[in-house]
Amino acid sequence: MSLRRLSVIAATSLFAGLSALAQDAQQAAPPAAPAETAPAAPVAPVAAEPAPAAAEPSASEWTYGRYNELVEKTGRTMKMSEDSFAAVQKRKEKAIKAIETYLTGKLGKADPEVLRAFGEIPREYFHYNYEGKYSSASGAYETEAKPWGIGYGSALSDYLGQAYMTQLSEPDADDVVLEIGTGSGFQSALLSRIVKEVYTIEIIEPLGNAVAKILKDIGYDTVHQKVGDGYYGWPEVEGGFDIIMVTCAALYVPPALLEQLKPGGKLIIPVGPAMRGKQVLYVYTKDADGKVHSKRDVGIYFIPMTGAMQEKPKPK
Asked: What is the pTM assigned to this prediction?
């Protein structure tokens, strides 16, 4: 099977030992036409304009009418019946319970802030294939967590994996976070419900620009998105980052990310080749003296980091 095929159907956060996360990312919607997975060279950063303050939908305010209003505003074709919308909301309740059970089993307990944040984000809003221009919103909160293709070789990661990485990062209300690999925008939206600011970078230009718009339209104004090569991080952000979360597999840790990690900060990154069973999630921490420590976490599977990662040799 080719790497291209793997990158579309494989779980972008495939945790070892959980069969649900090994499901192929296939939907009933027609497949998108083949395309390049990402630019071969870094894309010039184009910062999204800051979003104006807006009322962010809480769980109680998220209605069928609000859903239709927002998806129409974003220009995406995502219509579903009111009955389908109601079914999605019922599955959401079960998904949150599944997340709580999963986090308790893996990490000893489920962080209430992670559960709250997941409850506040309308995941169906992020269920869209930008390359094929079709929606999978009616399938949100599937019983067996799996990734969903969003086009250009990228995917909306499964919700158990996203909740796991969020809790593993130990987010705090005062934290400033950098995410490498915006993808659907859901992970940055999830983090934004907990932390102070989120900066997120996407190397695939059409995907990055489209997702910047949907984050702006829903009113997540603490999320700052740009198109560029995450290998270099976001050095313009003064003071660095409390958390850096990488959602694509690197062959090694980019030096710039370690440099931009604050003392006391945490870098979560999948490392390994673009092969199943060969990638490991690593947690890097930096102590008060600037010394970096690493720890192996779990076996995973992510699509590969492209751009400079594939061009520059590993630093000695």
From this structure: 0.82
